[in-house]
Amino acid sequence: MKEHGPRPTSAEAVLAAHRGDLDALTHAVHGDVDAATRLTGHVIVEPGARVVASWIEGPAVIAAGSLIERAHIGPYASIGRDCVVRGTHVEDSIVLDGATVHPVGRLSGALIARAAVVGSPAAPTPTPAETASRPTGADPQAR
Question: 0.70 exceeded by the pTM?
Answer without folding.
Answer: yes
